[in-house]
User: What shape does this take?
Amino acid sequence: MKKIYKYISKIFKIFEMYGLLNGIQLILNFLLPGNKKIKLRGINSLIKLRNLVTDKGIFHQVFVELEYDYPFELEPNPVIIDAGGNIGLFSVFIKNKFPLSQVVIIEPDNDNFQVLKTNLENYSNVFYENSGLWNKKTKIRVYDKYNFGKSGLVVEEDGVNGTLDAVSIDYLLEKYKLEKIDLVKIDIETSEIELFRENYYDWMRKTKYIVIELHDRIKVGCGMSFFNAIESTLPNYRFEIRGENIIIENLDFRK
Assistant: This one.
């Protein structure tokens, strides 16, 4: 019964967001088999979705529940890092909200990476890293450890047999010559434990907003690692929860 109620709630939410006719068209797109290219009101490009439950779930999170539609106080041309870009839906949303933004997207899975490049191909000032995010440059392996599909792939450090590079945020700052980060979105499926274990102080002090999904339900210690880093780095911050995300604002940027 709960599943039926949840499904009906999603349908009404779509109608509320996009109107009856557009909502019906969107729902039919989801029900039909095969890959989809969806046109949304207010979005300046078609959105490609695979016929995967994970793609549909992320679409609902970003474009129906609007979990990233937060009143971020950003400059007209902000620097944004999308860590765990998946198929690029957060970046599509943010490029339409902040068209002059510079966006760096990090995604380790090659299948996801190819779709996100398609979804962002009509936007300028977008840069792609087919890699994982870690606290240093290293080698990793990527696999579906918990059988969550394409939205829950896990990366683990493997300096001997790892086949993919992992990068740090400090490395990205140097590579793209960034002096600060206006917003970093982090959804990296338990790797936040390692990201906030060490080498976080410099980049966190240069970051205004951190939007993160923690994964303690999968691996205990994600939240502890993150909040230990916050407490040891940011003397003045504001905390808020929105959907699955925790939002941290570095209040020193207001001074």
User: Anything to note?
Assistant: The radius of gyration is 18 Å.
